[in-house]
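ARCHIVE ENTRY
Sequence with per-residue tokens
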Amino acid sequence: MKSFRKSLAILMGIFLLFAMAVYSPSPAMAQKAEKKAQTAKAATKSDAVETWSKPNAAFDASKMGDMSGYDPAKWVNPEGDTIKIAVVWPHSGPGALNGELAWACVTFAAYDINQRGGILVDGKKKKIALFKADSMSKPDQAKKICERMVLQEKVHVLLGTSGSNIQKIINEVASKYKVIGQNIGALSDELQDATNFNRYSFMSSDTTESIGRGMAYYYGQIRKKEKKFYILCQDYSFGRGMADGFKHGLKEYYPEAQIVGEDYHKLFLTDFAPYLEKIKASGAEVVWTGDWLPDAGNLLKQSRQMGIMLPFANLFLDEPNMLNEIGVEGTKGLVNIKHFDKAGPAFNSPGMIKYYKAWNDGWQKRWKTAPYDSPLFRHPMGTLGHWTQQVYWLFSVMERAKSTDPEKIIKVWEGDTYQYVNGRIIKMRPCDHKAIQGFRVAEWVPPADQKVSMNIPPYHWYENASNIGPSWEIPAGKVLPLMDPKLDRCVGKNAWGN
């Protein structure tokens, strides 16, 4: 009996110890659990550690085709069974120059692929055929032309565009007819939120939230000087998103900074004087603007004409025709954030030099048709580089999917990582199809000082304007795009989509 009681006591003791271990964890176990919880929480913040190491695919300049005959003004579609892509942009109207930019980027990548013999899809090698789909920057026209492209031209991809309002329509048509919609030029976060998301649309461009926070990170964590900022942006979802991203970034990375004024103007404005007068009286040290052409150029020109020499922090105040018109002094001190370029010397590999020369040699020797013969198209950097490399990413996904079937493309593209020609890595977040990427911020300096970035002859970007000088990298983990918690596909995912 004593032996039984002793055994029972031992068993009860073991049970109590087990229960205490389960319901009252040891300090070490509690710390481990707390650390795990903190890590999961941190992963949803902008300082989450980058989760990529080696990209799934990369642009290889050594495989480029013979580009000696390329001229964006002389594009001819190949005959036969092709991969058909609609380039949906304003090809006429006040925003037509953006369409010309897009056409150069898309035709460059497509010409290269065609010179290589095409892409092996659906059991055979197919070349790329391109169709100009003129949105005219008008929603009704955009819907009409997109549906015509799908139903009559039988395109496999709707590729767009400048203007988030137009990209939204592209995405809706892509979803309706189950074709791939690729967004390389519209930046509003709401395009991929719970209300607007669809499986067929991919936002390989960057986002307003990420760009705004990236610039705020620069001023708050790198530069640490100016503290008074004025916001002036276009009055629609893109412009307001750019402003919100910057404000969110200041709150996160530069809480001592002050917004001394905030305004929004209609698209294609010709008179900025009322806004500039307010900026002048505000005591601002820096103006943050997301304006794109032609608004960006008009804003800067009029500010300098009014004697306002404040630095403009910007995404699109880099149009070289405008910069050269304003001159070295008027463009000095601009602070530009960009999605393609890397910080430091621009030409960081033999592949980057080859890629650059394939474009720049054509501009110098063959491109004689306006506007492609203008300084705007001289360098395949910045937006030109970003748009072009996104198109190469699409072709890479198709090549690896071995198909034009949207379902097979979706399977490859969700969660994919791709390395640009200059080494920048970009990831497609699988749950909401938003691209994750870092940025480069640069200060504009006179030609003699541009060799810190333009590290090959002639060692300056432009002769008569300030341009890229000292530059800094903004890590992707500091500027992760917004993830809508209401989008069911993203529930339980961290900010990297894992």
In short: The domain at 209-346+440-477 is CATH 3.40.50.2300 (Rossmann fold). The longest helix spans residues 2-23. The first strand starts at residue 57 and ends at 58. Confidence is low (pLDDT under 50) at residues 1-49.
